[in-house]
Amino acid sequence: MAFVIESEQLGFGFIPPQYIPDGKDEYWVRNVQAPAGKAWRPLDAREREVLIANNNYCPDWDKFLVSDPFDPSLIRSSYFYGLNRIGAVRNALLKRHDFCVPAGIRNSTIISCDIGDDTAIQDCAYISHYIIGDNCILSRIDEMQATNHAKFGNGVLKDGEEEKTRIWIDVMNEAGGRSILPFQDITPADAFLWAAYRDDTQLMERLKEITQKEYGGQRGAYGLVGDHSVIKSCRIIKDVFVGQWAYIKGANKLKNISVLSSKEEPSQIGEGVEMVNGIVGFGCNAFYGIKAVRFVMGRCSSLKYGARLIHSVLGDNSTVSCCEILNNLVFPAHEQHHNNSFLIASLVQGMSNMAAGATVGSNHNSRANDGEIRAGRGFWPGLSVTLKHPSRFASFVFIAKGDYPHELNITLPFSLVNNNSRLDRLEILPAYFWIYNLYALERNSWKTLARDRRKTKKQRIETDYLAPDTAEEIIAALSQMEGWMAAAKMVIKETPGYETFPRVHDKNDPELSLTAEDDFLPAFDLESRGRDTVLLKPRRAVAAYREMLFYYSLKTLVDYLIQGGLAAGELSYADFAAKMESAGQEKSGRVTARVSEWVNLGGQIAPAFRVDELRERIRRGEIDNWGGVHAFYEEMAAAYPLDKARHAWEVYRYLCKDSPQSAGQNARQNAKHPFLSPDVFKKELANLIILRRKVSEQVYLSRAKDYSNPFKDVTFRNKEEKEQVLENPDKNPFVRLIYEQTGAWQEAARKLYERL
Q1: CA 742, CA 698: separation in Å to the nearest integer?
Q2: How many Å apart are CA 263 and CA 275, to the nearest integer?
Q3: What is the rounded (10 degree) CA torsion for 513, 514, 515, 520?
Q4: Helices (H) and strands (E) in the chain — how many of each?
Q5: So what's the pLDDT on residue 366?
């Protein structure tokens, strides 16, 4: 129902009187938001005459303030209501891409706005209560307004609002049991902290209080458009914050969102887009009819081609095209490009990829909508995979095509999972990627780092597939497999130390050859039903897992020494060993052994005890704002290289079947006789150099195997055509990059070897 009001009233009374503090007026929040240093003045008689002659209308020209220089001839055929303050208006052209318009205001209705210097506004039917920056272009906008209770996507309340109006995002669970509040500075780590530790009820209350304190409160904030931003050919823009250098064109509806943008990380929103109740991070793209409702887009992420992002947080450097993502928390570096892919009620912990036809977590195969999927880093459901929730997957699990009718708990990392419908059994090939597809594994880490477009890296994202989190998963998997082997009376030889360490690439090792009797191993508790579950090639998998741990532990230590300057004489091995031996964390007055619990905190890997410390400090009120939380993330990132190196030291100890006690307490107290002596370290470094070379060779062979497949030839007339279309593995840029990196690393390792 439309109401008739006097034109003199339009633009005034923005804040209801009961919400205006004593001694303030309705412009007090606006004046805080407005750029400092502007000198406003009233019009002189000549300027007013020119404005009226140019077919402009204002009920009270005394409420039309300007700053110098001001050319009134550049304002034409426009209506002004309320208090308007216009920055410098000069005869200038503004250009963005190929779109070029003159500065000034034409054919528009402006209601109680501040407009920056040399800004162009043309054919905008309704702009109300906005502060518009310098050098902006606003063209052909149907409606652009801010309400007195605008929250710009933050999940807060303004004065006088009821709790039921607060906007929550139901991540990970459709039933809402893990709801979080969005806010402008939110990171995937913040979302995880809020969603994962639901048993910590005091923490939940503190996070809500912190968010409300920082982003809620007083009514009366105006909408903002940052300097150098362009908004054109849009329909409805309501309660939207737009940062600097943003580019928005052809959007259907933007409501209650923040579009964070800067010159270094500009954000863009394109045609047909509809976004409601959410946060668009710095450097994001949203194009071609996408829909986003109750959402967060992490830094430098993209939505394209009709993608739907609903009740979800999408991590940094992720790209989603066409498909639907509903009730999810997705960590950085996620790829999903297919219209028939669905990701529902999940935690996906980054470096992940969804194939066409994959349906992960649909509640249509469950009695309730409160199930969840939890997947570690490197999650890769293959073509037409359907999964039932609740299910859990270790890191870097590849799921072969098929319908998986029962809940899964795949605890073996780097594995291939297959539903063998002919034999009606679940098959798992542990360490599949390490044995058969190192190209995919190495390339995943490389592309995660190479595609990190963030100019401001608010979190250190772990890109290496072998890190403390995955190493601990491997150790747990080995323990699990040892139990199954013992039950099946399958024997595998002990391999302590470097001299007899198994090398999975050594084809002559009898332990790696398979016989008809031991090519599979019965496994248990990996699927919810009682059908057979088997591990394929278990002996080779055990050898591969051990080799991966050796590679992780020694390479991590070598990299730490190289970066620490041992090769250049800036660090002694004794000092290094002392650091490693003393690094077990002090708890309850004693030195603990290996830190076995690690948390993937939004792509950042941290020891669980550090995350627990963060939670405790938030509970106690020592950290009482999100800036403090993010500063703690930085502290954890600064400590991570040493935390990781110490963990690698203890993983090597585990491989040698040597506990801290059997190593002797004197070894911990005397750096001259460390557990890993310089002589042993030199021998293992030589083994590592050989293994590093083999890894690069396996990257090549993984790629060459695909290229040499005879079925690759069937679509080509001859070899020459194939070579023009398909890349020869010898010329593959990534393969060549791996060889180059291996060569550079070997040279650094050689210098280190000479120093030991």
Answers
A1: 12
A2: 22
A3: 160
A4: 16, 44
A5: 59
For residue 142, the surrounding DSSP H or E stretch is strand 137-145
The band of 496, judged by pLDDT with boundaries at 50, 70 and 90, is very low
Q: How confident is the model at residue 224 (pLDDT cuts 50, 70, 90)?
A: very high
Identify the residue whose tokens are 């058969």: 436
Alpha carbons 212 and 232: distance in angstroms, whole number: 33
Cis peptide preceding 16, ω within 30 of 0: no
Phi-psi sector, 350: left (phi>0), alpha (psi -120 to 50), beta:
left
C-alpha–C-alpha distance, residues 242 and 289, integer Å: 19
Alpha-carbon distance of 220 to 146, in angstroms, equals 9
Taking the C-alpha atoms of residue 697 and residue 336, their distance in angstroms, rounded to an integer, is 30
| Residue 293 exposed, middle or buried by CB count within 10 Å (0-12, 13-18, 19+) | middle
Rounded to an integer, what distance in angstroms lies between the CA atom of residue 466 and that of residue 486?
27
Q: CB of 329 within 8 A of CB of 195? A: yes
573-581 vs 538-564: helix crossing angle, rounded to 10: 120
Nearest to 657 by CA among 500, 541, 539: 500
Q: How far apart are CA 289 and CA 676, in angstroms?
A: 59
Helix axes 538-564, 468-487, angle to 10 degrees: 150
**In the predicted model, what is the mean pLDDT of the chain?**
90
Mean pLDDT computed over 565-586: 72
Q: Which two tokens stand for residue 457?
A: 């890296």
Tell me: the pLDDT tens digits for 28-83?
999 999 988 889 999 999 999 999 999 999 999 999 999 999 999 999 999 999 99
End-to-end Cα distance, the chain: 83
Q: How far apart are CA 165 and CA 338, in angstroms?
A: 35
Pairwise CA distance, residues 541 & 474, whole Å: 11
How is residue 449 written in tokens? 């780092």
CA 125: distance to chain centroid?
38
Q: Are 275 and 269 in contact (CB under 8 A)?
A: yes
- In angstroms, rounded to a whole number, what is the distance separating the alpha carbons of residues 138 and 90? 16
More confident residue, 138 or 703: 138
397, 413 in Cβ contact below 8 A?
yes
- pLDDT score at 514: 41
Phi, psi values for residue 399, rounded to 5°: -105, 120
Alpha-carbon distance values, 367 to 326, 389, 406 (Å): 18, 11, 13
Separation between Cα atoms, residue 357 and residue 341, nearest integer Å: 5
Nearest CA to 318 among 310, 304, 361?
A: 304
The tokens describing 510, both together, are 């009898």
- In this structure, of 3-12, 257-266, 596-605, the range with the lowest mean pLDDT score is 3-12
